[in-house]
Design brief:
13 helices; disordered N terminus; elongated; 249 residues; single chain; mainly alpha; two-stranded antiparallel ribbon
Length: 249
């Protein structure tokens, strides 16, 4: 029994005295050596402690001094990619966290002090072509969704004033009216039907029956009634004119 105990003690001694291969003479880890915490995760309690400690540190530290120390130090592309992938994964998998974070960002962006800070930070910094292209594609994709358009147009638009735009203006600026104008210009080969001038500032009017006559005869009260009125959209009842001829007509 005594022999086995002595053997165990000697084994422990050998392990303790044995120098680790991933450290230098001063006991520091070599760069690239595997961490003792690899594959292990912090518990919720530990994370809360770390978060609390970090918040307390940033409350008492001078941020200007902190920035001076860290400014100009660049991370490697590998580190940046690793961090980006980690954040993307968290946004995709942790739905509850993502919801909380979105609400937090929304709340922060509504704070006027934070808006001023963001404005100052971005002022005078031009965006790259790749960034602008990415933003443009995202906006186009967003606008293609009918439900998104409903949220931003009509009564839901931020500049909505209770529907004060005159009905005539609504008709002349709707998509169907633009299509009607374009089809007449293409038919007339972009040429004024009075002075035969091609190109320049061209306009389209209702002829032989005018816009006003159609409007009053059919007693148009809403945009929906105008869109369903066939006389408004007949290509035969339209002609291309230059601006000068249209004024004099």
């Amino acid at each position: 029994m005594e022999i086995s105990q002595n053997a165990e003690i000697s084994k422990k001694k050998i392990v303790k005295d044995e120098k680790p291969t991933n450290r230098d003479s001063k006991g520091r880890f070599f760069r690239g050596s595997p961490s003792a915490f690899k594959g292990k995760k912090h518990s919720k309690k530990t994370k809360e402690k770390m978060s609390k400690s970090r918040n307390e540190y940033f409350q008492r530290v001078d941020m200007n001094e902190y920035r001076k120390y860290h400014i100009g130090k660049k991370q490697t592309e590998k580190t940046i990619k690793k961090r980006v992938d980690s954040v993307k994964k968290k946004w995709a998998e942790d739905k509850e966290w993502a919801k909380k974070r979105r609400n937090q960002i929304k709340k922060q962006n509504q704070d006027p002090r934070i808006r001023v800070k963001i404005s100052k930070a971005l002022k005078g910094k031009p965006k790259s072509e790749a960034h602008n292209k990415k933003v443009s594609e995202a906006i186009k994709k967003w606008w293609k969704n009918r439900e998104n358009r409903k949220r931003m147009t009509g009564k839901n638009a931020f500049y909505w004033k209770g529907g004060i735009t005159p009905l005539r203006k609504l008709i002349r600026h709707c998509a169907k009216y633009k299509e009607w104008r374009l089809s007449i210009m293409e038919r007339d080969n972009y040429t004024c039907q009075k002075c035969n001038k091609r190109g320049g500032w061209l306009e389209v009017d209702h002829y032989p029956e005018s816009f006003s006559d159609i409007f009053h005869k059919n007693n148009i009260k809403t945009l929906e009634e105008a869109l369903s009125c066939k006389k408004f959209w007949e290509i035969e009842n339209g002609r291309t004119l230059c601006k000068k001829c249209h004024i004099n007509n």
